[in-house]
Amino acid sequence: MTKPLKPEWVAAGKAIYEMKCLPCHKLTNVRLVGPGWAGVSKRRQPLWIINMITNVDMMLAKDEEAQKLLELCLVRMPNLSISPEDARSILEFMRSNDGEP
Ligand code: HEC
Fold first, then answer.
1. How many structural domains is the chain composed of?
2. Is the pLDDT score of 1 beyond 90?
3. Contact (CB, 8 A) for 36 and 27
4. Does ligand 1 have an atom closer than 6 angstroms to the CB of 33?
5. Can you state the percent helix, strand and coil of the chain, rounding each to 5?
């Protein structure tokens, strides 16, 4: 995690969001297919978010919080084959969306 945020990572994360996540996730707190991302970087630990992005099947099998979201959304988030570097950029974008400088 960087402080302040790295603009290049934020921009890379935004581009991935628009290509691969936007169909299911809004940047507000409105749920679409999955939960809206407003506040997500504050309500979840960074590692939890990274695991959700890179290894959603393991999370849905083992993590109670991820399972609660599945009960709420009734759709399984697909495995989108995101690399660790890209997951890091997406997390940076989420933090920027949550107003971190
Ligand atoms: C086909 C729809 C879909 C796509 C595309 C998708 N997700 Fe999801 N996502 C979900 C659903 C549904 C959940 C809730 C867990 C579940 O039901 O599997 C979720 C949950 C999450 C969560 C946890 C949110 C929270 O409030 O704790 C994160 C983080 C996340 N997704 C990241 C991503 C990222 C990053 C991408 C793009 C690379 C992405 N998702 C693409 C459907 C999707």
1. 1
2. no
3. yes
4. yes
5. 60, 0, 40
Ligand 1 pocket test: pick from 24, 44, 63 the residue with the most ligand atoms within 8 Å of its Cβ: 24
Instruction: Write the pLDDT tens digit of every residue in 2-25.
Output: 899 999 999 999 999 999 999 999
CATH number at residue 68: 1.10.760.10
The atom number, within ligand 1, closest to the CA of 90 reads: 35
Each residue of 11-70: pLDDT tens digit?
999 999 999 999 999 999 999 999 999 999 999 999 999 999 999 999 999 999 999 999
The three-state (H, E, C) secondary structure of 19-43, written as one string: HHHCCCECCCCCECCCCCCCCHHHH
Domain boundaries, position 33: 7-97
User: From ligand 1's centre to the CA of 75, what distance in Å?
Assistant: 9
State if residue 76 touches ligand 1 by the CB under 6 angstroms criterion: yes
Q: Is 2 a member of any domain?
A: no
Residue 92 lies in a domain: yes
The verdict on residue 1 lying in a domain is no
pTM: 0.97
